[in-house]
Amino acid sequence: MAENENNQNGNAQAAQQDGQQQGPMFALQRIYLKDCSFESPKTPDVFRGQWAPKITFNLNTSNSKIADGVYDVILRLTIEAKQEDNVAFLVEVQQAGIFTCDGFGEADLERVLATVCPNILFPYARETVDALVTRGSFPAIMLAPVNFDAIYAQSKQQQQAEQPAS
Fold first, then answer.
1. Are the beta carbons of 40 and 136 closer than 8 angstroms?
2. How many other CB atoms are found less than 10 A from the CB of residue 74?
3. E strands, 84-141, in order
4. 148, 114 in Cβ contact below 8 A?
5. What angle do CA 33, 37, 41 make, to 5 degrees?
6. By CB count within 10 A, which of 29, 83, 125, 151 is most buried?
7. Whether pTM exceeds 0.85
8. 116 φ, ψ (degrees, to nearest 5)
9. Cα–Cα distance for residue pair 122/80, rounded to 1 Å
10. pLDDT tens-digit profile, the chain (166 residues)
11. Is 72 within 8 Å of 132 (Cβ atoms)?
12. Strand intervals (E) in 8-126
């Protein structure tokens, strides 16, 4: 039995050395900050009153193929804090990554690019948002984790509901 396991492991290693792939391959190549901005148009007046802002948060993702099996994924976050009718600050961050996603079927690739990649990028974007806000002399913004799997599932359900019934 041990000989059989060794033989199977040897075959798998030989197949990988020959350049044959043993199924889908996913790898992170690079994470980078594509763009960021911080605006605080009403400073210093915004610091005079009681700090009780209304925060709005928008998030979206996009991806593009840059080579065979290699994709650029961009996570965009926009956070706006309004104090009464005045914008206290506006933060926009585009956190991006280059990912190898090879050997996936079309549906699986779509899911990986919409869920797995943004899950990897989000902590970096969250840290950038927090750093920009605190450097603007505002209280820290600690964004709650985002469930990209649930967002993807909701998006798929919405697409199916919008398709005309046959």
1. yes
2. 18
3. 86-102
4. yes
5. 170
6. 125
7. no
8. -65, -50
9. 18
10. 555 444 444 444 444 555 555 789 999 999 999 999 999 999 999 998 888 999 999 999 999 999 999 999 999 999 999 998 899 999 999 999 999 999 999 999 999 999 999 999 999 999 999 999 999 999 999 899 999 999 999 998 988 888 875 5
11. no
12. 25-39, 54-67, 70-83, 86-102
Under 8 Å between Cβ of 121 and 73: yes
Query: Which of 69, 66, 67 is CA-nearest to residue 24?
Result: 69
Residues linked to residue 26 through DSSP beta bridges, in sequence order: 101
What's the sign of the alpha-carbon dihedral 99, 101, 106, 112? Answer: negative
The amino acid that residue 106 corresponds to is E
Q: For the chain, which domains are there?
A: 23-141 (3.10.420.10)
